[in-house]
Design a protein that fits this description.
This protein is an all-alpha fold. Helices cover about 55% and strands about 0% of the residues. Among the domains are: about 50 residues; about 45 residues, no CATH class. It contains four helices and no strands.
Length: about 140
């Protein structure tokens, strides 16, 4: 008599997923396939559950110098990639500019404070060159 645990689950998964091979797996399979005889090649295809057409595609990719781990699908627009990179760089430079302006402002205040501590009145202070007002 069979138990409930030995009966396979008849439920079918909602959506099958594609197998994905890493570059190392592809290289391993290609090396084994190239070193094998015709009968062994068929056994390798059965063992790995792949078609010989897939191996020929991997061979072409390796022969052309492309990476075996290339991604499928639409490639990103090079102009959009460059635009994104430039926008990030612009944002970083704007942050640096804000920090530099804050540092310059603080330096002016420190200069004025030191001059005031030296005994000069605030009206007679020499302003640093970056804070001098044009004379009218």
């Amino acid at each position: 008599m069979t138990t409930a645990s030995s009966i396979p689950d008849p439920e079918v998964p909602a959506k099958a997923t594609r197998r994905r091979f890493t570059a190392a797996e592809k290289a391993r399979i290609l090396d084994a396939y190239d070193a094998a005889s015709a009968i062994e090649r068929a056994a390798i295809c059965r063992r790995e559950r792949i078609y010989s057409s897939l191996i020929s595609n991997w061979r072409k990719a390796r022969a052309s110098g492309r990476a075996l781990a290339s991604k499928r699908g639409r490639k990103p627009d090079p102009n959009a990639v460059e635009m994104t990179r430039l926008q990030k760089r612009n944002a970083a430079l704007e942050e640096k500019l804000v920090k530099a302006q804050q540092v310059i402002d603080i330096q002016g205040k420190v200069y004025a404070l030191l001059r005031a501590c030296a005994g000069e009145s605030a009206d007679q202070l020499d302003l640093p060159p970056w804070n001098k007002r044009p004379s009218t």
